[in-house]
Amino acid sequence: MRPVPKQRRGVTPRARLRVLQLPVVLWLTLVWVALWGELSAANVVFGLVVSIVVCLVFPLPTLPMDLHIRPLRLVWLVLRFLGDVVVASVEVAWITLRFWREPRNAVIEVDLETSSDFVLTVVAEMVSLVPGSLVVEARRSTHTLFLHVLDARDTAGVDKMRSQVYALERRVVRALGTETQRLPEGGTP
Known about the structure:
mainly alpha
């Protein structure tokens, strides 16, 4: 009687293909070409090789992308975000020039309404890109963001920042979310 061969441990070829997510490989290749600053066949091919090696050595778990892109709402999301950046930049400049009054900072907790990891990530990144606020922790298990906020003097300042994050979450869901992720139209959740 022949012994039953043991299953090989390790990554199967099929699992290896799942690790090579095409959008990630293309994005890394694009970053490679941009970093070298020259669009040539050799640069693109070498960028592909490097991105495949990176994906094989540092595999990322596949995330379900529950996306439904709405172009007009996406344009509004981007325009509003750019407006928020400009307004916040002026506010931060004023706070730093106001030497007679020391800013009081706060770390606040914001529980997001959606359970989408994608929405959590987009909201956290957009909040961090606006001057005067920074995400110090994001809890995936509870979909909670902890933000460091510049010049939140009292509960009104904290509530204002929370309402801004909830409004941003609603805009992200309207622009990129699915029908099951719909949030109330106004106010804080």
